[in-house]
Fold these 3 entries.
Entry 1:
Amino acid sequence: MNNNTAIEQLQVGRSSRVHFAICGSCFWCASVFRSDMLGTCPSCRNKALDTMPISKDEKYVFDYDEKRGVVLDFVPTRKK
C-alpha cells in the first residue's frame, strides 16, 4: 500500500465519524471526529452538548445572528 492510499483510507475513516457538536447553553460548537469523547462543554462545563453526524460529502457553515440565533447551512462538497 502506498502513502496516498493509506492517507485516503484514513480520511474516509475519519470523515465517516465527523459530527457537528453544539452546546445548548453557551453555543460553543466544533467539528468532532469522535462524538463519544464529548461529555461536557469545554467552554461552560454544561452537559447540554448536542451532536449530529456530518456526511463525508457535505460541509457546513456556522453563523450567529442576534435575531435568528444559530444558523447552520449544510451543502454538498464539490468534487475535484
Entry 2:
Amino acid sequence: MKENKKFQKVMAFIEKVKFEQLTAIIAVPFTPAFMVNIASGISNMPTKKFFWALFIGKIFLVLFWGFVGTSLVQSLTHPMALVKVVLLVLLAFIISKIINKKFALD
C-alpha cells in the first residue's frame, strides 16, 4: 500500500492536518471515529498531537451525546440541535487553539 500514489497522497494530507482541525473533526458527532483513528495510526502523525486532539474532541463529543442526545436524522429536523453541535465544535476549536499555543503541538 505504501507504493500506491493515492495512498501516499492521503497520508500526506493526514499528516498535514493541523491540530485544531483534527480536534474539530473528532468533536463532530457524526464523524466516523474508526476512520480518523486508523488514518492517524498509519500516518506519521505525532502521538502527542493525536492524543491531545482526541482528549479535547471526545470531551465535547460526550457533552453533545449527553445533553443533546439526537441522531443525525433527528438533528436535521430540529435546528437547535445543529446549533448546539456547531457551538460545541467551535468551543473545541478554541480550546484546541489555546492548548496548541501552550504545548506547541503543530
Entry 3:
Amino acid sequence: MNPTTLNALAEPNRLLIIELLREGPLSVGEIAERLHLRQPQASKHLKFLSEAGLVEVRAEANRRIYRLRPEPLMEMDEWLESFRGMWEERFDRLSDYLLYLKKTGSSLKPKEEFK
C-alpha cells in the first residue's frame, strides 16, 4: 500500500474532496463552492490529490474537471483486508467468551481457554 495515499487522505479537506468526487466528476469551482473553500485552496488540495494518484484532471475549455481514480483506494482496501481477518478472529473469540460468561454466570475474569 502506498503511504502517500494515507498521507493525502489524512487532511480533512482532501478527504471531503474524495467524498464529493464519489458522486461524480466536479470542477474546481464546484468543489470549492460545496466545501466553502477559496478556489486557490481547493486547487492546492486537488494538486496534492492528483500527485498522490487519487484524482485525475481533464481540461474542458477554461475549466478543470476532476475525477476520482479508484485504483489507489482499491489498493488501500486490499491492504486493510489483511487486517480484517485478524480482527474478525478476535471478535469471534470475544463473542465466544461473552456467550460463555452468559451461560455460566461467571465474572469477567478471563478463562485460560479464551486467552
